[in-house]
Structures are given as C-alpha cells and as structure tokens.
Predict the 3D structure of the following.
Amino acid sequence: VVLLAGAVTVLYSATSGLWGVVVTDLLLFIIAMVGSVAAAYFAVIQPEVGGLTGLFSNPELQSKISFLPDFTDWRTAAAVFIVPVAVQWWSTWYPGAEPGGGGYVAQRMLAARNEKEAMGATLWFNMAHYALRPWPWILVALASLLVYPSLDSIQVAFPNLDPSIIRHDLAYPAMLVFMPHGLLGLVVASLAAAYMSTISTHLNWGASYVVDDFYRRFINDGEEDRHYVTVGRVTTVGLIILAGIVSLWLENALQAFQILLQIGAGTGLVFLLRWFWWRINAWSEMAAMLVSFLVAIYFQFVHTNLGFPAMDSSLQLVIGVALTTVGWLTVTFFTKPAEEETLRSYYAAIRPYGAGWRRILNLGPDDPGPEAGGVAAGFLGWFLALSAVYGALFGTGFLLYGNTGWGVVCLAIAGSAMAGVFRVLPKFRIR
C-alpha cells in the first residue's frame, strides 16, 4: 500500500512541479477535511460515546480533556506540556513548524506574487493547520478511548488482526468501521489525500534543495531550465524510493514523529538566531544539523545496545538540544565569519533587527538601519497572530464542549487579534 500510494504521488509531483503540488494540495485538503468531519460525526454518535455531551461529561475522559496535565505524573507532564512549552517550540526544527522560518512554508511564500499575498497565505495556513484541522481528529481520538478503552478491546473487536500490529495508532482506523459504506470510502480517500498532500509537498521541497542548492550550484551550472527540470524529476523519484524504504522499516507513526523531533532538536535555535546575530555562518548551521543527526542516531540505535536503560523521548530531546547547542556554538567561534561584503549585502536585502547587526556593520549616519519601531511592530504582529490562532483553536473547542460563553469570548479575541494583525501590517511596508 505504501509503495502504491507513493508511486501515484510521485507521478503527479514529478510531472507537475510546484504549481501542480499547490493546486492538488488545496483539493486534497478539502477532501481530507470533509472525510475527517464525517469520521468525527459518526464517532461521537456511538452509544458508548453518547454524543458531544456524553463525550465531554464522561468521567473516564476528564483527565484527558484537562488543559493542564496531572503534574503528579512528571513523566507524562514533561512529555506533553513542560518540554513543548519550555524547550521544544524554540529549539526544535520540524517540517512546517520551523522556529526560524524556512522549509516548504518559505518555499511557498517565495512563490507568491508579492509579499502581501505571501503574508496572507501564511496566516491562512497557520489558521487552517492549527485551529481548524485538529478538532475532528481530537473528537475521534477521544471517542476511541470510550469505544476501545484498551488495546485488548481492539484485539477482541478484530480477532483476525495480527497482534503484533495492534498499537494505539490503530484506534483511528478502528473507529471507521462504524461509518456507512459510502462514506467509509470518502474517509479512506481523505486519509489517502492527507498522505498524498504531505508526500508531494516534501518531495517537491526536497528536490528543490537537491537541484538548486546542490546540483546547480556545485556540479553543473549554466544549463537550460529544461535540464534542471529533468534532474528535479529524477531526484523526486529517488527521494520517494528512499522514503518508501524508510517507512517500511519504521514500526509506527509515533516512532517517525519522535525521530524527526530528535533529528531537529537543537537546530531551531541556530535557525532563529541567524536573523539577529551576524556571527551565525554556514558552518554553524551545518554543525547543528550534523550534531543533532548523530545524537538522534545514537539514541535510536546505539544507546540501548550498549546496555543503558531506555530513556524517555522528552529527556532525549532535552539532551539533544543541549549537545547540539554546545556543538554549533563551538563551531561558530572556531570558524571565520562570513565575508563583510556578504554580510552587508544580506543586511541591505533583509534589514534584520537587533543591535548585533548594527554594531558589527558599523553603520554610518547615512544608513538609518531598521526603521524605528520595527522590532516592536514585529513582535506585536507575532503576538496578535498567535492570539488569533489560539483564540480560534480554543474557541472552537469551547463550543464543542458546550461552553458557549467562553467559546464566544475566545472567538471574539481571535477576530480582534486578526483585525489587529492587518492594522500592524502596514508598518512592515510589505508590497
């Protein structure tokens, strides 16, 4: 199934390019949302669930729907709250959630017609990705805890299923058996759509790195565009083959997620600081990526084989962040900074904020540097956009919970914050 779906995805990804990937992403997103909403509806109407009211009032779920975890269980609290809030968001690179920007989000921003459309598209992506898309999945997950309270109950419901593949991530497809056959096909299509959208995005993004940042720059420059399109298509096929091999090796989705987090642990800080500190250079970023990758390989393949006890994934992440940060800082101070001409050219194009850039470039009186209030406007815009996304997320949740008052308050905050974002945008002088 993995290889067949990968083959279909690589066919249109390789032939259509970024434009085709973006257009199909929109269609696949609509299909995925329709399917996930349908799955959520039929999940919550099951007798064991009792609708939304029965779901959120069930005593078995109170600890699961609490905003804060149970801090008497420090292992769980660290994994789901403390580490993500205190460390992970600024230190860990993850596709689509890069602390310092970049990835396929930057790729699509740069493909927009102008800065204004790039900003609007990014705001819409964050609103749809974080505020709109999660709730149908959350409802199905909560309902599954009542329908299948344990892994043994899944085994009982599906006696012919191989016990070795019964894990927690099987609860979602197990909930789909309650859907009418016609809608079941739609939901299966929605799962395929989510998969294909993700794969096509990463294939196109990865191929752009290989072709533009490596092949064209270091191996073969000066060819016609048709040549690089062909190289990109060949690269896309190669990437899907490697991805298919790795996916067949992985045991479950959680393992893939944890490996990605560990590989990115510590790199987020260097990607973030490069906008504010002139001393960050290419060696800094390469060192961060290399050290974090080696740490991830160690914890995944070496640590337990040396006889050490298995370590919590949250602790692995914190250790990875610490080692990676020490590694890239050491490399930064032991390597030469970028050439002054390069720094000045970068500064003139980007106009980064912060005293670090003004001080090292020795700007004269004829160069005013970043506009007054630029830093404040930037952080204000960030705070307002964040408030809009979280307001929409929690507002939708409160309405589903049946708490209309707080739901209206949160949605009002989201609307006001979004209006504030558009009032702040002119200060950035985007075009």
